[in-house]
C-alpha cells in the first residue's frame, strides 16, 4: 500500500500541479502585477478556458520573445542556428521533450522557421499539461 507521501506525489503528477504552479510563479515574476491574486485568478480562468476550447493556455513566450532568442543566438543574422544552440534554447524555454531530429540537424543548420515551429509546439505541449485528465 502506498504511503501518504507517495499518494500525494502521484496526485501532483497525475494533475500536473507542479507544472501549473511553476508556470504561474514564473508569470508572477515576469509580469509583476499590481494585484497578484487577481492576476492568478485571471490566469486560472485562462487555464479553464484552455481546457474547454483546446486553445493554448497561458505561457510567458510569444513570437517576439522567440525572435529575441534567435537574435541572441544568431548575431550575424545567418537565419539559422546550430543544433546545440537549438537544443539549449528549447531547454532554456522550459521545453523538456525536444525533437532530436528537426529539419536541418544533419547539416547542423536549424532554420529560424524550424526553431520557432518546434518552440511553439513545445510550449503548447507544456501549456496543455494543465488540461485536466
Entry keywords:
133 residues; cAMP-dependent Protein Kinase, Chain A; Recoverin, domain 1; 6 helices; 2 strands
Write the CATH fold name of the largest domain: Recoverin, domain 1
Helix-strand makeup class: mainly alpha
Percent of residues in helices: 55-70%
* Main sheet strand line-up: 1-2
Total count of domains: 2
Radius of gyration (Å): 17 Å
Examine the secondary-structure arrangement and name the CATH architecture of the largest domain: Orthogonal Bundle
- Strand tally is 2
Order of helices and strands: HHHHEHEH
How many helices does DSSP assign? 6
Low-pLDDT segments, ≥5 res: none
% residues in beta strands: under 5%
The rough form would be described as globular
CATH class of the largest domain: Mainly Alpha
Measured between the Cα atoms of the first and last residue, the distance is 24 Å
Organism: Amphiprion ocellaris
Protein name: EFCAB10 C-terminal EF-hand domain-containing protein
Task: Please characterize this protein's 3D structure.
With 133 residues, the protein is mainly alpha-helical. The chain folds into two domains: 4-53, Up-down Bundle (cAMP-dependent Protein Kinase, Chain A); 63-128, Orthogonal Bundle (Recoverin, domain 1), CATH 1.10.238. It contains six helices and two strands. The chain has helices at 4-14, 17-31, 36-53, 63-73, 83-92, 112-128, and strands spanning 80-81, 110-111. The chain has a two-stranded antiparallel ribbon. 14% of the residues are buried. The model has no long low-confidence stretch (mean pLDDT 83). Pfam families: EF_EFCAB10_C. InterPro entries: DD_EFCAB10, EF_EFCAB10_C, EFC10. This is EFCAB10 C-terminal EF-hand domain-containing protein. Residues 64-124 form the EFCAB10 C-terminal EF-hand domain.
